Amino acid sequence: MIYLSLGLVWAIIIAGGSTLLKINYFLSFFQGIVAFLIGSFIAYLTTPVIGLYETGFWFFVLTPIVFIGLIAFVFTVENYNEVNEKSSKLILLFTTLSLIFFISFSFITTTPMFHSESYYNLLNVVEESEFNPEKVLLDQTQARFVDQDLSVRSANEILGQIRGMGSRFRIGSMRIQNINDELQWVAPFEHSTFFRWMDDNTSPGYVLVRASDYSESKMVTEDTDINYGNTGFYFSKHLPRHLYDNGYSRTLFNDFTLEINNEGKPYWIASIIKRKVGFSGKVATGIVVVNAKNGAIDEYSIEDAPEWVDRIQPESIVEDLISDWGEYADGWWNSFAVGNGVITATPGSSIVFTENKRSKWYTGMQSKSTTNKESTMGFMMVDSRTGKALFYQRSGITENVAKTAIEGRVQESEYISSNPIPYNINGQITFLSILKDKNGNVQGIGLVAYDNRSKVVFGESFDIALRRYMSVIAEVNGTENMNSSMKTIKIDGIIKRSHLQNIDNRLILNFTLTGDDYHGLFFIVQADENKEAMLTRDNDKVSFETYSLKNESIQSFNFKNNNF
What whole-number distance in Å separates Cα of residue 289 and Cα of residue 287? Predict the structure, then answer.
């Protein structure tokens, strides 16, 4: 067993050192037995990954060496007559050299001073000058109106509704996942205490909270027992230890995430991590999929991973890779002393889902040397499965600025904005966030344009916020504020129904068109200073342009009434 083998390492070091120090053989043997037991126990608790470049393994081995070195130091200083002075100094020298070797070895093999190019090349980035929101970002019809905090709150409400559940279990870490083309927050039920685990042994399942509707949450407990987990599970049922015991003592894992397959069965996903630059340079190379019920383990490469798995690339590792790519494009010295062309990521990253329902890590990018920390030179999107990175060079505002702008829109109410998520709203890259009061209750939705913080609105509902936002960004004649990389769609039609509406002192023409091609579509155009729009009535023939017909509410521009 691996723990006994590691405990034996401690026993050999301690017993061997004691023997060299001329401590009597019986006491040396006894110390070796104690070291064996303590070492095995510590190995069981910490499960150190065995490897030349694993810091935990080095600390595990160096601990008994330092311990015996300290004893030798005390014996040398106190000048015990019964101790062999030469052996004592030899052990002290060996301990010192061991520590110096570890520090030197880790520095030489890991420091960016010598390996900046290797760090830079860890992330393969494709730089894109053009960005079409419609082909990348989800549109507003698939927006998330439930953030992580709200999902936890909703799950706890369900947990509290069932007698006895709240005292026995707690909600685990909430993670968002695409389950059968629907975004859901997922979390396992975890045992609340060690004694609850001893009593129940099995968790009944997991909870789902729909990302678009706070009220749509449910417990899933039918044939979904969870016997293995990362927190709230102990001994052989503790997931990292379960993997360690089953042939993965030399494998580094990260980001233990519960994901649900297409049949609703829970599985634990753990990313397999390799160090590419000494003790650092971590990259994900694959995953293990662990059946949460019976503990069966399957290993996959990135290419062969099941389609229902969303996350292979851990957030912390992606952030490090992006940071290294931006820092060391022109070497370590430029990053350290000069700073030309150094790019840094804006604080934090968000998981976003693209138009094809793939999950990606999103973060803004800005020049390190700039004094304006509120703007970005573009943004990075890293596929959470493959690790493929796309850098879009499109200037805009940071996530923090978006958050501040939205909160400033309702500063008198002191609402708090959630972390803004970018969406495609009628061809505009738009940050959307949920606004809550101090008690955590949702009060409305905030929208702000990625390229202009002054284009910010608040609405008590998303529909109200959307109408106000489209009113703000609409142009009567032309496409000044629209996305130039997207092709326009020209439409000629007959008005079926129309209605002029005043929104925040702006006249908006809402209308529908006849014909099956436009059934269920709702068009909006700003009518201020556009007499043709203001005077449009039912059955009038009109022509206009738009970017997409995928949304239920569609912004229009270059509007003309052909009856005039």
Answer: 6
Instruction: Give this prediction's pTM.
Output: 0.87
Q: Which range of residues forms the domain containing residue 422?
A: 399-473
Helix ranges (DSSP H) in 187-300? 194-200, 239-245
Q: Are residues 159 and 305 in the same domain?
A: yes
Show which of 59, 94, 110 is a domain's final residue: 110
| Average pLDDT estimate for 370-380 | 82
Q: What is the pLDDT of residues 498-520, one digit of tens each?
A: 999 887 777 889 999 999 889 88
Give the closest residue to 422 by CA, choosing from 384, 451, 444: 451
3 state DSSP class of 399:
helix
Mark whether 75 and 183 lie in a shared domain. Answer: no
Q: What is the structure's pLDDT at 479?
A: 45
Burial of 440: CB neighbours in 10 Å, binned 0-12, 13-18, 19+: exposed
Q: For strands 553-555 and 297-301, give the pairing.
A: unpaired
Tokens 């326009």 appear where?
488
Whether residues 73 and 185 share a domain: the answer is no
Are 442 and 526 found together in one domain? no
Residue 69: what are its φ and ψ, rounded to 5°? -65, -40
Encode pLDDT of 412-470 as tens digits.
Answer: 999 999 999 998 887 788 999 999 999 999 999 999 999 889 999 999 998 888 888 87
Task: Round to whole Å and give the CA distance between 345 and 368.
Answer: 9
pLDDT per residue as tens digits for the range 341-361: 899 999 878 999 887 778 999
Q: Do both 463 and 494 map to the same domain?
A: no
Residue 502, token pair as written in the block: 């005043």
Domain stop point among 312, 342, 373: 312
In a domain, 374, yes or no: no
Q: Are residues 303 and 227 in the same domain?
A: yes
